[in-house]
Amino acid sequence: MARRKGLLLDRAGLVSAALDGLQLSGWSFEVAPTLACARELLTGGEFSVGLVAFDAADSWPLRELEGLLSRYDVEWIAVLDRSLLDSEVLAPLLRRNFYDFHSLPLEHDRLRMTLGHAHGKASLFEKVAPQQDDEGRFGMTGRSAKMLKLYRQIDKIVAVDAPVLIGGESGTGKELVASAIHRHSARASKPFVAMNCGGIPASLIHSELFGYERGAFTGAHQRKIGTIEAANGGVLFLDEIGDLPLDLQASLLRFLQEKTIVRVGGTERLKMNVRVIAATHVDLDRAVAEGRFREDLFYRLNVLHLVVPALRERKDDIELLAQVIYDRNQDLRSHQVRGFSAEAIHAMAAYDWPGNVRELINRVQHAMIMSENRFINAADLGLTAAEAPVPTLDEVRNTVEREMIESSLKRYQNNVSATARQLGVSRVTLYRMIDRLKIIV
Ligand SMILES: Nc1ncnc2c1ncn2[C@@H]1O[C@H](COP(=O)(O)OP(=O)(O)OP(=O)(O)O)[C@@H](O)[C@H]1O
Ligand SMILES: [Mg+2]
């Protein structure tokens, strides 16, 4: 078995000699007497577990220590005298940054078990870290069935040049899809120009789309190119197309049919080569039925149709998305934050996400800045904890230990020596565990 590597931060040499004496098989430790030395070792080596010895509450400059502990993917175990657990300065730091603690004096079996658990946890994190390549496609994150279907549709859409209508709730990623279509189509080297039809006063939309000549109206001091012309050769993304006033719908339809424009105040008819991608978060069918949207324009735009799924319809992706958002926003992270708690992941899965991915981004960013915990919890995300509480690692560990001990005791007809031998612990340790886990022998 490859030796596991541990780091020991030991300012006063309190623990290193004792640790040597224990001769823990399968483990090798490097000792750092200062934080600077620890930083150097951590940068170079692959440690899964670190021990930090405290001889007093102020053994280490705490802020610097916390900065160091939170920066590396190492499971930390505090080694200290039990009395220090009550220290007002030390206790919160321990809670935020440490996986477990080991009270002095060092004990071979107890330490080996704690180290083993911490190492197991560290390897678990390594395994679940998402692989870059399988996160998604087209710059989008998601591997759910709904997203895979969307990717297949995009694959077809990038191969042709017809208009596209993208539907989907607010914040689902409609603009992201539009720009992905552009980047993966034959028009990729030409412009992508976005215009929000709902964000511009109705009176200005026409000149915004078609541009104007100098002197076309008061204040038109020089010629201005419109968004259609700016997108020539490339893609024009018309966001919130449902907000386009009816008279402009007629102008847009004419442009789509004739593929030409005339700037406001101009006479020249200019030939344009633009692919239009439109998006809407409202139900355009209904707008057509109610006479608010021209049916002929609807059919022109709706040659290719995509619906970006709401986040609640692809719950499988939530954890992955949250992790990707977390990884991309490391600069926002409060120094002790190390990831999400299981409770947070449950709460995210249970929530409905009316604001979709945009809301998820906001909540994760907020939590990364404001959380005072080592692992972001539901409250940090502004969510309520899901009904069934997730067991803590301690609870899981206790359950597994209890089950193993009980089955082994049964096998050896409650013979403690034989059970201890099979489980690889001393009799004293086994007695202590039986006591702690309230096992009836
Ligand atoms: N699948 C995804 N993977 C990663 N990021 C995403 C995904 N979908 C959306 N986003 C991000 O979510 C945010 C909102 O996306 P976008 O602006 O494309 O949504 P929208 O549907 O256009 O929203 P609205 O209707 O409010 O305009 C953006 O920051 C975008 O990068
Ligand atoms: Mg948008």
Q: What is the 3D shape?
A: elongated
The name of the CATH superfamily of the largest domain reads P-loop containing nucleotide triphosphate hydrolases
Helical amount = 40-55%
What is the name of the CATH architecture of the largest domain?
Answer: 3-Layer(aba) Sandwich
In order across it, which strands form the biggest sheet?
2-1-3-4-5
* Low-confidence residue ranges: 129-133
GO molecular function: ATP binding; sequence-specific DNA binding
Organism: Parazoarcus communis
Domain Sigma-54 factor interaction: 140-369
Pfam families: AAA_lid_14, HTH_8, Sigma54_activat, VpsR
Structural topology:
Blueprint (H helix, E strand, L loop, with lengths): L3 E6 L6 H7 L4 E6 L2 H10 L4 E5 L8 H10 L3 E6 L9 H8 L2 E4 L4 H21 L16 H13 L6 E4 L6 H11 L7 E5 L5 H9 L16 H4 L4 E5 L6 H13 L1 E2 L8 E2 L3 E6 L3 H6 L5 H7 L2 E4 L10 H11 L10 E2 L1 H9 L5 H15 L4 E2 L16 H19 L4 H8 L3 H10 L5
Parallel strand pairs: 1-2, 1-3, 3-4, 4-5, 6-11, 6-12, 7-8, 8-11, 13-14
Antiparallel strand pairs: 9-10
Helix pairs in contact: 13-15, 16-17, 17-18
Bound molecules: adenosine-5'-triphosphate and magnesium ion (MG).
Structural overview:
The structure is a single chain. The chain is built from 18 helices and 14 strands. With 441 residues, the chain is of the alpha/beta class. It folds into four domains: 4-128, Rossmann fold, CATH 3.40.50; 145-309, Rossmann fold; 314-381, Helicase, Ruva Protein, domain 3 (Orthogonal Bundle), CATH 1.10.8.60; 393-436, Arc Repressor Mutant, subunit A. Strands 2-1-3-4-5 form a five-stranded parallel β-sheet. β1, α1 (16-22) and β2 form a beta-alpha-beta unit. The longest helix has 21 residues, at 108-128. It is elongated. The relative contact order is 0.08. Bound molecules: adenosine-5'-triphosphate (ATP) and magnesium ion. Residues 174-175, 239 line the site of magnesium ion.
